[in-house]
Amino acid sequence: MADPKHPRHYEESFKRQIVQLYENGKPAREIKDEYDISHSTLHRWVQGIRNSGSTRAADNRTPELIELIELRKRNRQLEMEVDVLKQAALIFARK
């Protein structure tokens, strides 16, 4: 299996070929053993192709997940701004 610190990256065409093998009836166990792909990876690719026609994670996000990601990003930005303002307030309080 792949090293978690260095995940493998597969070409989109390879992913589609693997999903095609699965869709044509090749057992998941044979595919994962032959190509050294985890069950969860194979399942994610199959679901992605079925749902949106793409294996890219960004293409398979729900509107709620997209909103959550954007809100978390905005929250991090606001937290950084608050930290900067706190530091500025400390500097001005000393003067």
Q: Helix content range of the residues, please?
A: 55-70%
Mean pLDDT: 86
Please indicate the percent range of residues in DSSP E strands (runs of 2 or more).
Answer: under 5%
Which value, in Å, is the CA radius of gyration?
Answer: 22 Å
Quaternary structure annotation:
single chain
Number of helices: 4
The 3D shape can be described as elongated
Topology pattern, helix = H, strand = E = HHHH
Q: Report the uncertain regions.
A: none
Number of strands: 0
Largest sheet data: none
What is the end-to-end distance? 59 Å
Task: Give the class from helix and strand content and strand pairing.
Answer: mainly alpha
Protein name: Transposase
Organism: Bifidobacterium adolescentis
GO biological process, one term: DNA transposition
GO molecular function, one term: transposase activity
Describe the structure.
The protein contains four helices and no strands. Helix 1 crosses helix 3 (39-52). Helices cover 69% and strands 0% of the residues. By secondary structure, it is mainly alpha-helical. The protein has helices at residues 12-23, 28-35, 39-52, 63-94.
Give a concise summary:
By secondary structure, the chain is mainly α. It is 69% helix and 0% strand. Helix 1 packs across helix 3.
Which short descriptors sum up this protein?
single chain; 95 residues; mainly alpha
Topology:
Blueprint: H1 12-23, H2 28-35, H3 39-52, H4 63-94
